[in-house]
Design a protein that fits this description.
Neprosin PEP catalytic domain-containing protein, 2 domains, mainly beta, 10 strands
Amino acid sequence: KPSIGSILKLSSVYGGDKTVIFTPHVYQDVFIPGWALKVDDEMIGYWPGELFTHLKNGASRVRFGGNTYISPDGISPPMGNGHFPLKDYQRSSSFLHVKLTNHRYQTIEAKTILRNADSRCFRLMDRRYTKENGKSFSYGGAGGRCGI
């Protein structure tokens, strides 16, 4: 069961048939002012509205971010499955069906995904919308001495 600060023990097998999918959902609560995080329809966390007063009427954009822990010797660990993303979803760590909830509490597909990554160690791949995967992006890399 995912929770804040937990380690996800389930994982997909690179190039294999086993695929593990988590469905995160961050949304503005309609009834209680604040923001909630669900994973696979299970409530994980909640941020009271007082923390984000500038978001009381919704958000105009959403940003995803991630990083890996850099050890004291300057070596970054792998991200995603440890490989750069490829066209083949079975060989890429990905976010599928990226959606947003607008100010009318309607779920809409994300449109543009901008990318920025250290290309020596990590890469991002924006993917076109498909019926099967919705709007999606893939990410990953071997890590190493990235100079970050």
